[in-house]
Amino acid sequence: xxxxxxxxxxxxxxxxxxxxxxxxxxxxxxxxxxxxxxxxxxxxxxxxxxxxxxxxxxxxxxxxxxxxxxxxxxxxxxxxxxxxxxxxxxxxxxxxxxxxxxxxxxxxxxxxxxxxxxxxxxxxxxxxxxxxxxxxxxxxxxxxxxxxxxxxxxxxxxxxxxxxxxxxxxxxxxxxxxxxxxxxxxxxxxxxxxxxxxxxxxxxxxxxxxxxxxxxxxxxxxxxxxxxxxxxxxxxxxxxxxxxxxxxxxxxxxxxxxxxxxxxxxxxxxxxxxxxxxxxxxxxxxxxxxxxxxxxxxxxxxxxxxxxxxxxxxxxxxxxxxxxxxxxxxxxxxxxxxxxxxxxxxxxxxxxxxxxxxxxxxxxxxxxxxxxxxxxxxxxxxxxxxxxxxxxxxxxxxxxxxxxxxxxxxxxxxxxxxxxxxxxxxxxxxxxxxxxxxxx
Length: 440
Ligand SMILES: Cc1ncc(COP(=O)(O)O)c(C=O)c1O
Prior knowledge:
By secondary structure, this protein is of the alpha/beta class. The chain folds into 2 domains: about 55-300, 3-Layer(aba) Sandwich (Aspartate Aminotransferase, domain 2); about 305-420, Aspartate Aminotransferase, domain 1 (Alpha-Beta Complex). The chain has helices spanning about 15-25, 45-55, 70-85, 100-120, 135-145, 160-165, 190-200, 215-220, 260-265, 290-325, 350-360, 385-400, 410-420, 425-435; strands at about 95-100, 125-130, 145-150, 170-180, 205, 235-240, 255, 270, 280, 330, 340-345, 365, 370-375.
Protein backbone atom coordinates (compact mmCIF):
# COMPACT_ATOMS: atom_id res chain seq x y z
CA UNK A 1 0.00 0.00 0.00
CA UNK A 2 1.32 3.44 -0.92
CA UNK A 3 1.58 5.73 2.12
CA UNK A 4 -0.15 9.08 1.87
CA UNK A 5 0.84 11.20 4.80
CA UNK A 6 0.27 14.77 3.65
CA UNK A 7 -2.72 16.56 2.21
CA UNK A 8 -2.45 16.25 -1.58
CA UNK A 9 -2.07 19.56 -3.37
CA UNK A 10 -4.86 18.88 -5.78
CA UNK A 11 -7.90 16.67 -5.48
CA UNK A 12 -8.32 13.24 -7.05
CA UNK A 13 -11.51 12.53 -9.01
CA UNK A 14 -14.06 11.00 -6.62
CA UNK A 15 -14.44 7.96 -8.86
CA UNK A 16 -10.71 7.30 -8.53
CA UNK A 17 -10.82 7.73 -4.73
CA UNK A 18 -13.70 5.27 -4.61
CA UNK A 19 -11.64 2.76 -6.56
CA UNK A 20 -8.79 3.13 -4.09
CA UNK A 21 -11.17 2.59 -1.19
CA UNK A 22 -12.58 -0.54 -2.77
CA UNK A 23 -9.08 -1.89 -3.24
CA UNK A 24 -7.97 -1.04 0.33
CA UNK A 25 -11.14 -2.68 1.66
CA UNK A 26 -9.94 -6.00 0.23
CA UNK A 27 -7.39 -6.45 3.02
CA UNK A 28 -10.03 -6.27 5.78
CA UNK A 29 -11.49 -9.26 7.59
CA UNK A 30 -14.16 -10.95 5.49
CA UNK A 31 -17.00 -10.55 7.97
CA UNK A 32 -19.54 -11.06 5.18
CA UNK A 33 -18.12 -14.55 4.84
CA UNK A 34 -18.65 -15.09 8.57
CA UNK A 35 -14.93 -14.83 9.38
CA UNK A 36 -15.33 -12.45 12.35
CA UNK A 37 -16.97 -13.11 15.74
CA UNK A 38 -17.44 -9.61 17.08
CA UNK A 39 -17.31 -6.06 15.76
CA UNK A 40 -19.97 -6.46 13.06
CA UNK A 41 -23.70 -7.09 13.54
CA UNK A 42 -25.29 -7.74 10.17
CA UNK A 43 -28.88 -8.91 10.09
CA UNK A 44 -29.30 -9.28 6.30
CA UNK A 45 -28.37 -7.45 3.11
CA UNK A 46 -31.93 -6.20 2.87
CA UNK A 47 -31.75 -4.72 6.36
CA UNK A 48 -28.33 -3.16 5.70
CA UNK A 49 -29.63 -1.49 2.53
CA UNK A 50 -32.54 -0.17 4.57
CA UNK A 51 -30.17 1.20 7.25
CA UNK A 52 -28.05 2.89 4.59
CA UNK A 53 -31.16 4.55 3.15
CA UNK A 54 -32.26 5.87 6.51
CA UNK A 55 -28.76 6.96 7.50
CA UNK A 56 -28.31 8.76 4.19
CA UNK A 57 -31.63 10.56 4.61
CA UNK A 58 -30.31 12.01 7.89
CA UNK A 59 -26.68 12.16 6.80
CA UNK A 60 -26.15 15.87 7.44
CA UNK A 61 -28.56 16.57 10.28
CA UNK A 62 -27.18 17.04 13.78
CA UNK A 63 -28.64 15.48 16.91
CA UNK A 64 -27.05 18.23 19.00
CA UNK A 65 -29.98 20.56 18.62
CA UNK A 66 -33.40 18.94 18.38
CA UNK A 67 -34.90 22.44 18.16
CA UNK A 68 -33.67 22.52 14.57
CA UNK A 69 -34.67 18.94 13.82
CA UNK A 70 -37.89 17.97 15.64
CA UNK A 71 -38.00 14.61 13.87
CA UNK A 72 -34.74 13.63 15.59
CA UNK A 73 -36.15 14.62 18.97
CA UNK A 74 -39.10 12.31 18.25
CA UNK A 75 -36.81 9.43 17.20
CA UNK A 76 -34.54 9.69 20.22
CA UNK A 77 -37.29 10.04 22.80
CA UNK A 78 -39.22 7.14 21.29
CA UNK A 79 -36.16 4.88 21.06
CA UNK A 80 -35.42 5.56 24.73
CA UNK A 81 -39.03 4.88 25.67
CA UNK A 82 -39.15 1.62 23.68
CA UNK A 83 -35.92 0.48 25.35
CA UNK A 84 -37.18 1.49 28.81
CA UNK A 85 -40.34 -0.56 28.30
CA UNK A 86 -38.42 -3.55 26.95
CA UNK A 87 -36.30 -3.39 30.10
CA UNK A 88 -39.33 -3.15 32.39
CA UNK A 89 -38.68 0.42 33.40
CA UNK A 90 -42.29 1.43 32.74
CA UNK A 91 -43.28 5.07 32.41
CA UNK A 92 -40.98 6.30 35.17
CA UNK A 93 -37.68 5.21 33.63
CA UNK A 94 -35.82 7.91 31.69
CA UNK A 95 -32.71 7.96 29.56
CA UNK A 96 -30.89 9.22 26.49
CA UNK A 97 -29.29 7.77 23.42
CA UNK A 98 -25.50 7.81 23.22
CA UNK A 99 -22.86 6.97 20.64
CA UNK A 100 -22.26 3.47 22.02
CA UNK A 101 -21.81 1.24 25.02
CA UNK A 102 -18.76 3.04 26.34
CA UNK A 103 -20.50 6.39 26.36
CA UNK A 104 -23.60 4.88 28.02
CA UNK A 105 -21.42 3.36 30.73
CA UNK A 106 -19.50 6.59 31.21
CA UNK A 107 -22.71 8.56 31.57
CA UNK A 108 -24.14 6.17 34.16
CA UNK A 109 -20.95 6.41 36.23
CA UNK A 110 -20.90 10.21 35.96
CA UNK A 111 -24.58 10.48 36.89
CA UNK A 112 -24.10 8.31 39.99
CA UNK A 113 -20.97 10.24 40.94
CA UNK A 114 -22.82 13.56 40.80
CA UNK A 115 -25.87 12.10 42.53
CA UNK A 116 -23.73 10.78 45.38
CA UNK A 117 -21.99 14.12 45.75
CA UNK A 118 -25.23 16.10 45.70
CA UNK A 119 -27.21 13.85 48.02
CA UNK A 120 -24.54 12.47 50.35
CA UNK A 121 -21.53 14.75 49.90
CA UNK A 122 -19.28 11.87 48.76
CA UNK A 123 -16.09 13.47 47.45
CA UNK A 124 -13.95 10.37 46.87
CA UNK A 125 -16.38 8.06 45.12
CA UNK A 126 -15.74 4.38 44.56
CA UNK A 127 -17.52 1.76 42.50
CA UNK A 128 -17.27 -2.02 42.71
CA UNK A 129 -16.68 -3.91 39.47
CA UNK A 130 -16.42 -7.62 38.69
CA UNK A 131 -13.11 -8.27 36.89
CA UNK A 132 -15.13 -9.42 33.87
CA UNK A 133 -16.92 -6.09 33.42
CA UNK A 134 -16.13 -4.20 30.20
CA UNK A 135 -13.10 -1.84 30.38
CA UNK A 136 -15.46 1.06 29.61
CA UNK A 137 -15.98 1.16 33.40
CA UNK A 138 -12.24 1.55 34.01
CA UNK A 139 -12.25 4.26 31.40
CA UNK A 140 -15.13 5.98 33.20
CA UNK A 141 -13.26 5.63 36.49
CA UNK A 142 -10.19 7.17 34.89
CA UNK A 143 -12.04 10.02 33.18
CA UNK A 144 -14.39 10.91 36.03
CA UNK A 145 -12.21 10.40 39.09
CA UNK A 146 -14.12 7.45 40.51
CA UNK A 147 -12.03 4.74 42.13
CA UNK A 148 -12.62 1.33 40.55
CA UNK A 149 -12.51 -1.53 43.06
CA UNK A 150 -12.18 -4.83 41.18
CA UNK A 151 -13.61 -8.00 42.68
CA UNK A 152 -13.06 -11.62 41.74
CA UNK A 153 -15.47 -13.96 39.99
CA UNK A 154 -16.22 -17.57 40.90
CA UNK A 155 -15.32 -20.60 38.78
CA UNK A 156 -18.48 -19.95 36.69
CA UNK A 157 -17.25 -16.41 35.97
CA UNK A 158 -20.02 -14.79 38.05
CA UNK A 159 -19.08 -12.05 40.46
CA UNK A 160 -18.27 -13.20 43.99
CA UNK A 161 -20.97 -11.60 46.16
CA UNK A 162 -19.03 -11.93 49.38
CA UNK A 163 -16.13 -10.06 47.79
CA UNK A 164 -18.55 -7.31 46.70
CA UNK A 165 -19.99 -7.09 50.23
CA UNK A 166 -16.53 -6.86 51.72
CA UNK A 167 -15.51 -4.07 49.35
CA UNK A 168 -18.41 -1.73 50.20
CA UNK A 169 -17.52 1.27 52.34
CA UNK A 170 -18.85 4.79 53.01
CA UNK A 171 -17.44 6.04 49.68
CA UNK A 172 -19.14 3.40 47.56
CA UNK A 173 -21.56 4.97 45.10
CA UNK A 174 -22.24 2.13 42.67
CA UNK A 175 -22.28 -1.64 42.22
CA UNK A 176 -22.09 -3.04 38.69
CA UNK A 177 -23.15 -6.33 37.14
CA UNK A 178 -23.28 -7.45 33.51
CA UNK A 179 -26.17 -9.03 31.65
CA UNK A 180 -24.25 -10.73 30.21
CA UNK A 181 -20.53 -9.89 30.36
CA UNK A 182 -18.62 -9.80 27.09
CA UNK A 183 -15.79 -12.30 27.60
CA UNK A 184 -17.87 -15.43 28.26
CA UNK A 185 -21.49 -14.33 27.76
CA UNK A 186 -22.32 -15.06 31.42
CA UNK A 187 -24.77 -13.13 33.64
CA UNK A 188 -23.78 -11.76 37.01
CA UNK A 189 -26.26 -12.37 39.87
CA UNK A 190 -28.17 -9.14 39.26
CA UNK A 191 -30.91 -9.75 41.84
CA UNK A 192 -28.39 -10.34 44.64
CA UNK A 193 -26.31 -7.33 43.65
CA UNK A 194 -29.37 -5.08 43.45
CA UNK A 195 -30.60 -6.26 46.85
CA UNK A 196 -27.23 -5.46 48.33
CA UNK A 197 -27.10 -2.04 46.64
CA UNK A 198 -30.58 -1.20 47.87
CA UNK A 199 -29.81 -2.24 51.43
CA UNK A 200 -26.83 0.14 51.39
CA UNK A 201 -28.65 2.99 49.64
CA UNK A 202 -26.23 3.01 46.71
CA UNK A 203 -26.63 2.77 42.93
CA UNK A 204 -26.75 -0.42 40.90
CA UNK A 205 -25.90 -0.37 37.19
CA UNK A 206 -26.69 -3.33 34.94
CA UNK A 207 -24.48 -3.34 31.88
CA UNK A 208 -26.78 -4.87 29.29
CA UNK A 209 -24.84 -3.45 26.34
CA UNK A 210 -24.82 -6.97 24.93
CA UNK A 211 -28.06 -8.30 26.40
CA UNK A 212 -30.43 -5.34 26.42
CA UNK A 213 -31.82 -6.04 22.96
CA UNK A 214 -31.39 -9.80 23.20
CA UNK A 215 -32.45 -11.14 26.60
CA UNK A 216 -36.06 -9.85 26.47
CA UNK A 217 -36.54 -11.78 23.21
CA UNK A 218 -34.77 -14.92 24.41
CA UNK A 219 -37.11 -14.92 27.39
CA UNK A 220 -40.12 -14.62 25.09
CA UNK A 221 -38.75 -17.59 23.14
CA UNK A 222 -38.90 -19.64 26.34
CA UNK A 223 -35.28 -19.49 27.46
CA UNK A 224 -34.80 -19.19 31.20
CA UNK A 225 -33.35 -15.74 31.81
CA UNK A 226 -32.83 -14.64 35.41
CA UNK A 227 -34.33 -11.24 36.28
CA UNK A 228 -31.82 -8.63 35.12
CA UNK A 229 -33.60 -5.35 34.42
CA UNK A 230 -35.70 -2.64 36.12
CA UNK A 231 -38.11 -5.34 37.29
CA UNK A 232 -35.42 -6.03 39.90
CA UNK A 233 -35.85 -3.74 42.87
CA UNK A 234 -32.66 -1.76 43.43
CA UNK A 235 -31.50 -1.44 39.80
CA UNK A 236 -30.90 2.27 39.24
CA UNK A 237 -29.47 2.36 35.70
CA UNK A 238 -28.86 0.22 32.63
CA UNK A 239 -26.90 0.44 29.39
CA UNK A 240 -28.11 -1.35 26.24
CA UNK A 241 -26.53 -1.13 22.81
CA UNK A 242 -28.67 -0.77 19.73
CA UNK A 243 -25.66 -1.09 17.45
CA UNK A 244 -24.86 -4.57 18.74
CA UNK A 245 -27.73 -7.02 19.14
CA UNK A 246 -30.31 -4.34 18.27
CA UNK A 247 -28.92 -4.63 14.71
CA UNK A 248 -28.99 -0.89 14.02
CA UNK A 249 -26.29 1.29 12.45
CA UNK A 250 -23.15 1.96 14.50
CA UNK A 251 -23.16 4.88 16.91
CA UNK A 252 -26.29 3.93 18.86
CA UNK A 253 -26.85 2.87 22.46
CA UNK A 254 -29.14 3.86 25.32
CA UNK A 255 -28.49 4.62 28.96
CA UNK A 256 -31.62 4.40 31.09
CA UNK A 257 -32.21 5.43 34.70
CA UNK A 258 -34.92 4.40 37.09
CA UNK A 259 -36.31 7.94 36.94
CA UNK A 260 -35.78 11.45 35.63
CA UNK A 261 -34.27 12.66 38.89
CA UNK A 262 -31.26 10.41 38.46
CA UNK A 263 -30.98 11.19 34.74
CA UNK A 264 -30.69 14.88 35.61
CA UNK A 265 -27.17 14.17 36.93
CA UNK A 266 -26.09 13.05 33.47
CA UNK A 267 -26.83 16.33 31.72
CA UNK A 268 -24.40 19.16 31.15
CA UNK A 269 -25.60 22.74 30.86
CA UNK A 270 -23.77 26.02 30.48
CA UNK A 271 -25.40 29.44 30.66
CA UNK A 272 -22.35 31.70 30.28
CA UNK A 273 -21.04 30.99 26.80
CA UNK A 274 -21.08 33.93 24.39
CA UNK A 275 -22.17 31.36 21.80
CA UNK A 276 -25.53 31.07 23.57
CA UNK A 277 -27.20 28.84 26.13
CA UNK A 278 -25.80 25.32 25.85
CA UNK A 279 -27.26 22.03 27.03
CA UNK A 280 -25.94 18.60 26.10
CA UNK A 281 -27.06 15.17 27.26
CA UNK A 282 -23.78 13.27 27.01
CA UNK A 283 -20.07 13.36 26.15
CA UNK A 284 -20.32 14.23 22.48
CA UNK A 285 -21.37 17.63 21.19
CA UNK A 286 -22.33 17.07 17.58
CA UNK A 287 -24.29 13.83 17.33
CA UNK A 288 -24.83 11.99 14.05
CA UNK A 289 -28.57 12.02 13.40
CA UNK A 290 -28.20 9.10 10.99
CA UNK A 291 -27.56 6.63 13.81
CA UNK A 292 -30.49 7.98 15.85
CA UNK A 293 -32.86 7.74 12.87
CA UNK A 294 -31.53 4.29 11.93
CA UNK A 295 -32.16 3.02 15.48
CA UNK A 296 -35.76 4.22 15.39
CA UNK A 297 -36.27 2.83 11.91
CA UNK A 298 -34.86 -0.57 12.86
CA UNK A 299 -37.08 -0.94 15.92
CA UNK A 300 -40.08 -0.22 13.71
CA UNK A 301 -38.97 -2.31 10.74
CA UNK A 302 -38.24 -5.41 12.84
CA UNK A 303 -40.78 -5.05 15.63
CA UNK A 304 -41.03 -7.75 18.27
CA UNK A 305 -41.82 -10.41 15.69
CA UNK A 306 -38.75 -9.54 13.64
CA UNK A 307 -36.45 -9.82 16.67
CA UNK A 308 -38.07 -13.10 17.72
CA UNK A 309 -37.56 -14.53 14.24
CA UNK A 310 -33.97 -13.37 14.22
CA UNK A 311 -33.17 -14.82 17.65
CA UNK A 312 -34.96 -18.09 16.95
CA UNK A 313 -32.58 -18.61 14.01
CA UNK A 314 -29.56 -17.31 15.88
CA UNK A 315 -30.12 -19.70 18.80
CA UNK A 316 -30.09 -22.57 16.30
CA UNK A 317 -26.73 -21.35 15.01
CA UNK A 318 -25.40 -21.08 18.57
CA UNK A 319 -26.54 -24.64 19.25
CA UNK A 320 -24.55 -25.87 16.23
CA UNK A 321 -21.42 -24.00 17.35
CA UNK A 322 -21.73 -25.46 20.85
CA UNK A 323 -22.14 -28.97 19.47
CA UNK A 324 -19.13 -28.58 17.15
CA UNK A 325 -16.91 -27.10 19.86
CA UNK A 326 -17.79 -29.83 22.34
CA UNK A 327 -17.47 -32.58 19.73
CA UNK A 328 -13.94 -31.32 19.03
CA UNK A 329 -13.14 -31.90 22.72
CA UNK A 330 -12.96 -28.25 23.76
CA UNK A 331 -14.62 -26.92 26.90
CA UNK A 332 -17.24 -24.14 26.92
CA UNK A 333 -16.69 -21.85 29.90
CA UNK A 334 -19.53 -21.56 32.42
CA UNK A 335 -23.14 -21.28 31.42
CA UNK A 336 -23.45 -18.65 28.69
CA UNK A 337 -26.94 -17.24 28.44
CA UNK A 338 -27.33 -16.33 24.77
CA UNK A 339 -25.30 -15.79 21.65
CA UNK A 340 -21.88 -15.16 23.19
CA UNK A 341 -19.69 -17.98 24.40
CA UNK A 342 -16.06 -18.82 24.95
CA UNK A 343 -14.10 -22.05 25.05
CA UNK A 344 -10.83 -23.29 26.44
CA UNK A 345 -8.51 -26.19 25.69
CA UNK A 346 -7.67 -28.26 28.75
CA UNK A 347 -4.71 -30.06 27.20
CA UNK A 348 -3.26 -27.75 24.57
CA UNK A 349 -2.03 -24.19 24.17
CA UNK A 350 -5.12 -22.42 22.83
CA UNK A 351 -2.99 -19.61 21.40
CA UNK A 352 -1.15 -22.11 19.19
CA UNK A 353 -4.57 -23.26 18.05
CA UNK A 354 -5.62 -19.65 17.47
CA UNK A 355 -2.49 -19.02 15.37
CA UNK A 356 -3.49 -21.86 13.08
CA UNK A 357 -7.12 -20.66 12.93
CA UNK A 358 -5.84 -17.22 11.91
CA UNK A 359 -3.72 -18.73 9.16
CA UNK A 360 -6.94 -20.30 7.89
CA UNK A 361 -8.50 -16.83 7.56
CA UNK A 362 -10.51 -16.60 10.81
CA UNK A 363 -10.40 -13.42 12.88
CA UNK A 364 -9.83 -14.86 16.35
CA UNK A 365 -10.71 -13.07 19.61
CA UNK A 366 -8.22 -14.37 22.14
CA UNK A 367 -8.76 -14.06 25.88
CA UNK A 368 -6.71 -14.60 29.00
CA UNK A 369 -7.43 -15.69 32.59
CA UNK A 370 -8.48 -18.27 31.59
CA UNK A 371 -6.85 -18.62 28.16
CA UNK A 372 -9.79 -18.98 25.82
CA UNK A 373 -11.34 -17.99 22.51
CA UNK A 374 -14.38 -15.75 22.39
CA UNK A 375 -17.32 -16.01 19.99
CA UNK A 376 -19.93 -13.28 19.55
CA UNK A 377 -22.24 -15.14 17.19
CA UNK A 378 -24.34 -13.24 14.64
CA UNK A 379 -26.39 -14.22 11.58
CA UNK A 380 -23.28 -13.75 9.37
CA UNK A 381 -21.75 -16.80 11.08
CA UNK A 382 -24.67 -19.13 10.31
CA UNK A 383 -23.43 -20.40 6.92
CA UNK A 384 -19.90 -21.21 8.13
CA UNK A 385 -20.52 -23.24 11.30
CA UNK A 386 -19.39 -26.54 9.78
CA UNK A 387 -16.26 -25.05 8.21
CA UNK A 388 -15.37 -23.30 11.46
CA UNK A 389 -15.83 -26.43 13.56
CA UNK A 390 -13.82 -28.56 11.12
CA UNK A 391 -10.95 -26.03 11.18
CA UNK A 392 -11.25 -25.87 14.94
CA UNK A 393 -10.93 -29.61 15.36
CA UNK A 394 -7.91 -29.74 13.08
CA UNK A 395 -6.26 -26.76 14.82
CA UNK A 396 -6.89 -28.26 18.25
CA UNK A 397 -5.35 -31.61 17.26
CA UNK A 398 -2.39 -29.72 15.81
CA UNK A 399 -1.92 -27.65 18.99
CA UNK A 400 -2.03 -30.81 21.12
CA UNK A 401 0.66 -32.40 18.94
CA UNK A 402 2.87 -29.28 18.89
CA UNK A 403 3.24 -27.76 22.36
CA UNK A 404 6.68 -26.44 21.29
CA UNK A 405 4.92 -23.86 19.06
CA UNK A 406 3.91 -22.00 22.22
CA UNK A 407 7.20 -20.16 21.69
CA UNK A 408 6.21 -18.82 18.26
CA UNK A 409 3.73 -16.41 16.69
CA UNK A 410 1.07 -14.70 18.79
CA UNK A 411 1.14 -17.69 21.15
CA UNK A 412 4.62 -16.59 22.20
CA UNK A 413 3.40 -13.06 22.89
CA UNK A 414 0.48 -14.25 25.01
CA UNK A 415 2.83 -16.61 26.84
CA UNK A 416 5.22 -13.76 27.55
CA UNK A 417 2.47 -11.43 28.77
CA UNK A 418 1.20 -14.10 31.17
CA UNK A 419 4.68 -14.50 32.66
CA UNK A 420 5.76 -10.87 33.00
CA UNK A 421 6.92 -10.35 36.59
CA UNK A 422 5.77 -6.73 36.63
CA UNK A 423 2.19 -6.32 35.35
CA UNK A 424 2.75 -2.61 34.59
CA UNK A 425 5.07 -3.76 31.80
CA UNK A 426 1.99 -4.97 29.95
CA UNK A 427 0.60 -1.42 30.04
CA UNK A 428 3.87 -0.12 28.59
CA UNK A 429 3.53 -2.65 25.84
CA UNK A 430 -0.06 -1.52 25.18
CA UNK A 431 0.99 2.15 25.03
CA UNK A 432 3.58 1.19 22.42
CA UNK A 433 0.91 -0.67 20.51
CA UNK A 434 -1.23 2.49 20.49
CA UNK A 435 1.68 4.59 19.21
CA UNK A 436 2.26 2.08 16.43
CA UNK A 437 -1.40 2.20 15.52
CA UNK A 438 -0.97 5.82 14.44
CA UNK A 439 2.17 5.23 12.42
CA UNK A 440 1.42 5.56 8.72
C1 LIG B 1 -20.78 -5.73 27.99
C2 LIG B 1 -20.24 -4.55 27.22
N1 LIG B 1 -20.33 -3.33 27.76
C3 LIG B 1 -19.86 -2.23 27.12
C4 LIG B 1 -19.26 -2.34 25.87
C5 LIG B 1 -18.73 -1.11 25.17
O1 LIG B 1 -19.48 -0.88 24.00
P1 LIG B 1 -18.95 -0.01 22.78
O2 LIG B 1 -17.86 -0.80 22.12
O3 LIG B 1 -20.16 0.16 21.92
O4 LIG B 1 -18.45 1.28 23.30
C6 LIG B 1 -19.16 -3.61 25.28
C7 LIG B 1 -18.51 -3.77 23.98
O5 LIG B 1 -18.27 -4.87 23.51
C8 LIG B 1 -19.65 -4.74 25.97
O6 LIG B 1 -19.59 -5.98 25.44
